[in-house]
Amino acid sequence: MQDAYAAWQAGQVMILDIREEYEHDSSHVAGVPLIPMSEIQDRLDEIPTELPLVILCRSGNRSATVTDYLNELGDYGEVANLEGGIIAWAANGLPYEGAPPR
């Protein structure tokens, strides 16, 4: 978790939040773009490809599915799941805005 945050802060990876908008509105990591999982297939052209990609959701389950999907497509370079999602992010003391994620 700390490694993903440090890499993101250093500009070495991109993080993509795939939670639904209402979840993002409740709590989110400032500066991390949102493309809800329900919209991924329609918005593939918006997914950044210039850096390795880390996928973020609430607990790591949906992001694992999207990570597998993007890796199967093969057009997005290195794609990794942020295990534990924003719940683990917050539990590790990493910065976020809004209510504590649950």
Q: Could you describe the 3D structure shown?
A:
The protein has a single domain, classed as 3-Layer(aba) Sandwich (Oxidized Rhodanese, domain 1). Strands 1-3-4 form a three-stranded parallel beta sheet, with helices on one face. Strands 2-5 form a two-stranded antiparallel ribbon. It is of the alpha/beta class. The protein has four helices and five strands, in the order αβαββαβαβ. The two termini are 17 Å apart.
Number of domains in the coordinates?
1
What is the string of SSEs from the N terminus onward? Answer: HEHEEHEHE
End-to-end gap: 17 Å
Instruction: Write the CATH homologous superfamily.
Output: Rhodanese-like domain
Query: What is the level 1 CATH name?
Result: Alpha Beta
Strand order of the largest sheet: 1-3-4
* Main β sheet profile: 3 strands, parallel
The total beta strand count reads 5
- How many H/I helical runs? 4
Structural class: alpha/beta
The percent of residues in helical segments reads 25-40%
Low-confidence stretches: none
Measured on Cα atoms, how large is the radius of gyration?
12 Å
Percent of residues in β-strands: 5-15%
Oligomer: single chain
